[in-house]
Amino acid sequence: MLIEKFKKFLGLDIKEEKYAYASDPLFGYTSASKIPEKWIKTTCGYCSVGCGMLLGVKKGEIVAVRGDEDAPVNHGKLCPKGLSEHYSIKSPQRAKFPLIRDHAGLHERITWETAYQQMVERIKATQQKYGRESFAVLSTGQLVTEEFYALGKLVQLGFKTNNYDGNTTLCMSSAVVGYKQSFGSDGPPGSYQGLEKADVIFLLGANIADNHPILWHHLIKNKHGTLIVCDPRKSKTANFANIYLPIKPGKDIDLINGLIHLMIKWGKVDRAFIEAHTHGYSDLVRHAENYPLEIVAVRTGLTEEKILQTAKCIGNAQNVFFAWTMGINHSTQGSDTVSLINTLALITGNIGRTGAAPMSITGQCNAMGTREFGSTSSLPGYRKFENDKDRQELARIWRVREEEIPKKRGKNYPEIIQDILDGKIKALWVVGTNPLASFPDQQRLKAAFGKLTLLVVQDGFHPTPTTELAHLVLPAAIWGEKKGTFTNSERRVNLVQAAVNPPGEAKTDFNIFLDLALYLGVREKLFPKWRTEEDAFEEIKAVSSGRLCDYSGITYQKMLELGGIQWPCNDQNPNGKDSLYTDGVFPTEDGKARLLYVESSPKPEDPDNSYRLILNTGRTVEHWHTRTKTAAVPILEYLAPIPWLEINPQTAQYYEIRPNDKVALISRRGRVKDLVVRITETVQPGQVFLPFHYFEKCANLLTIPAFDPKSGEPNYKQCAVRIEKMPVANGAEAMT
Ligand SMILES: Nc1nc2c(c(=O)[nH]1)N[C@H]1C(S)=C(S)[C@@H](COP(=O)(O)OP(=O)(O)OC[C@H]3O[C@@H](n4cnc5c(=O)[nH]c(N)nc54)[C@H](O)[C@@H]3O)O[C@H]1N2
Ligand SMILES: Nc1nc2c(c(=O)[nH]1)N[C@H]1C(S)=C(S)[C@@H](COP(=O)(O)OP(=O)(O)OC[C@H]3O[C@@H](n4cnc5c(=O)[nH]c(N)nc54)[C@H](O)[C@@H]3O)O[C@H]1N2
Ligand code: SF4
Ligand SMILES: [Mo]
Q1: 86, 170, 472, 615: which to mutate for ligand 2, most atoms within 8 A of CB?
Q2: Would the CB of 81 count as within 6 Å of ligand 3?
Q3: Whose CA is nearest to atom 3 of ligand 2?
Q4: Mean pLDDT throughout 230-242?
Q5: Which of 118, 461, 541, 587 could form a disulfide with 184 if both were Cys (CB 3.0 to 4.6 A apart)?
Q6: Which of 570, 576, 582, 580 is nearest to 546 (CA)?
Q7: Number of domains forming the structure of the chain
Q8: Are residues 331 and 288 in the same domain?
Q9: Both 39 and 126 in a single domain?
Q10: DSSP letter (8 states) at residue 609
């Protein structure tokens, strides 16, 4: 019955059905008319696991998707989003034509020529009047690396502004800063194989069961390891843990300090490694004295027994795989927490081996590509803006004057928003991100966007909350329609291929950037002889040669054959490398890592009598971020059509709330009405959880605009809220 309902929902021809593709989203059944003429190898366009997949194409359409059995990441498996990704391409909300906003505020179709002319003229006029930095750019972690690389050059050497950042600051920037502080460079040192080999897998603020599902298949292969999960919410991942640590929100620093204390006290540290490869141990020892077990238990809300159990596991293991995601990064102390995890890994000698690494699991399909070559937080090839030698080297390869390359990075994402509010930035180009759903404190953001004299939005979809406000909409091709590379969390560079043409007049971001360079008069200077993405890739290889993120040994053909290659890939490592820092030498000036120590500071907003609850926000397996893609996929939307608010039974009792009641959630910044309640012990008393995917009930109306001062990353995971019960007739009605 349910299956019939799904089929009807998806409009499949039931009579023609035949068991054909085990990985079809419809329980393995598909219509005979959907048998592909050819299969094209590519990489999933959602998360950073980077699964290899095959797109079945028939008559210019993708009719089926299956996991690539040869792909080293997923060995033929895909999660529900990957399996149904091709449905997003057919969304009725795809952006098809360039649009301009007329005087009445309506979007009107224009030609690409007019769009480019308008954009370039208006940006130039703004820059002439208010200075170069009055124009800013916000990009994403979801383009191919070739596009990021082209965009970085175009923005900084073409438009000559370095107020350029991306949604990766909402996501990975604390991991980047944390790595730089500890090791001297960005770059996740471990690999997914580590999940299979480690004796202990310690996940902090990472719900991989929902958000990196295929990583489970690596975990399952690990028959001996202990899984420890630290998360205030008993997530799907926490449910599988051998040791679950229901930490008080935002108290990870105290826990890690406590673990460092115990490692030192018990002598479970690697003295030889510390002496040969690190600085700062004696200071760390003094600092750790302040974190005895009793104090740590009180601060973290964890029992002494659980902390001891965790410490024993770490202390006795040969290989510990520390991994974290947004529960750590989404904090005003994210960068320092990352460094502290690195410190714990370093003193216990857990680095440089398969299964032993402090590993930031990234988020978007190509968050890594922009970190490596996007020119936002570093210059391409993890070069430093401030380093003369790095700039000289780049200028030589690019054949430009050294002075043309900025000496410091420009404003980061939240600083760009602040500058718009302050009237310093007047024109903004948004590429592949949807701030009007994803940035904290939407009221404030809307006030900022209202001040812009020019907003250009380049997106694969329209309308979106952000394109709706745009003066100019540039329609972009999306995954399935473009070529290039994505780098996953384990530094694996994977090939992405086009299977179909974009709709209407939409163009690949790559071609839009090249066209704009032409209109700016810098096409040949910046992109000499480039015709295809592969030409850009060749330049990336040259730029990366000899660097930590060395791509010089990778080719498109080799990726097709090997199914993705982990950098560094060069003469010494022709097929890539599983772990970084295998020799204990780090990319700092003296080759040694820094043992950073950190005190925890108060959260930006604690509950009080008016706002008694802590709001935690995050994800669910069915949806992708602001749902521009997944809302168009019937099976995913059908499984999770509306947002819900998780409340603990004790909290529910206090507010006299029953299952399926509707409530309003209110913070000092905004209010979200008509939220259906899910009463569950997944969240602890005094805490609530709301997924942030639903623009129509936007979690970011509530979140706080508080940012890590080092990385700019928002504190999305804790703010103070209260609940008001909404009048509803009965629970059943509330569900509709
Ligand atoms: N299905 C799906 N998958 C995705 C995405 C998606 O939108 N949908 N997005 C991708 C992206 S860009 C990203 S960045 C990743 C994010 O992947 P995750 O980080 O796994 O996702 P979140 O749900 O944001 O947060 C993870 C966990 O942090 C916990 N947490 C909250 N506060 C704290 C705290 O103080 N301490 C600790 N230790 N934990 C805390 C939350 O309860 C939550 O379970 O997922 C990627 N994968
Ligand atoms: N409250 C709360 N807020 C959060 C988070 C949270 O946990 N809680 N998580 C944060 C994190 S980690 C992240 S990464 C951000 C994500 O936030 P966003 O980046 O805003 O989310 P997406 O929906 O992925 O937006 C991507 C946009 O790019 C478009 N697009 C897709 N493919 C292409 C393409 O190939 N080219 C172009 N030009 N456009 C394309 C999509 O249609 C969409 O509009 O959200 C952040 N916001
Ligand atoms: S785990 Fe991530 S990369 Fe793999 S299929 Fe799912 S969304 Fe795609
Ligand atoms: Mo993210």
Answers
A1: 170
A2: yes
A3: 438
A4: 97
A5: 587
A6: 570
A7: 4
A8: yes
A9: no
A10: S
Q: Give me the CATH number covering residue 551.
A: 3.40.50.740
State pLDDT tens for residues 116-126.
999 999 999 99
- What CA dihedral angle connects 181, 540, 583 and 586, to 10 degrees? -20
Claim to verify: residue 65 and residue 107 sit in the same structural domain: no
- Determine which residue's CA is closest to atom 47 belonging to ligand 2: 438
User: Is residue 418 packed enough to be buried (19+ CB in 10 Å), middle (13-18) or exposed (0-12)?
Assistant: middle
How far apart are the CA of 362 and the centre of ligand 4, in A? 7
Query: Which residue minimizes the CA distance to atom 6 of ligand 3?
Result: 79
With 90 as the cut, is the pLDDT of residue 517 above it?
yes
pLDDT at 9: 47
Q: Using alpha carbons, select from 516, 523, 431 the residue that is nearest to residue 478.
A: 431
Going from the C-alpha of 556 to that of each of 559, 561, 575, the distances in angstroms are: 5, 9, 13
Q: Is the CB of 44 under 6 A from ligand 3?
A: yes
Residue nearest to atom 6 of ligand 1 (CA): 624
- State whether 303 and 318 are in the same domain: yes
Q: Print the domain residue range for 672.
A: 613-731
Q: By the 8 A CB rule, do 216 and 198 touch?
A: no
Residue nearest to atom 28 of ligand 2 (CA): 432
- What is the spatial distance between Cα 644 and Cα 250, in angstroms, rounded to a whole number? 23
Query: Is the CB of 51 within 6 Å of ligand 3?
Result: yes
Q: Is the CB of 351 under 6 A from ligand 3?
A: no
Which atom of ligand 1 is the closest one to the Cα of 364? 12
If you measure from the C-alpha of residue 49 to the centroid of ligand 3, how many angstroms do you get, rounded to a whole number? Answer: 6
Q: What is the pLDDT of residue 14?
A: 36
Cα(83) to ligand 3 centroid in Å equals: 8
Alpha helices (H) in 58-154, listed in sequence order: 80-83, 86-89, 112-130, 145-153
123 and 146 part of one domain:
yes
Compute, in angstroms, the gap from residue 541 CA to the centroid of ligand 3: 27
Query: What span, in angstroms and rounded, lies between the C-alpha atoms of 579 and 190?
Result: 5
Nearest-angstrom CA–CA distance, 313 and 305 = 12
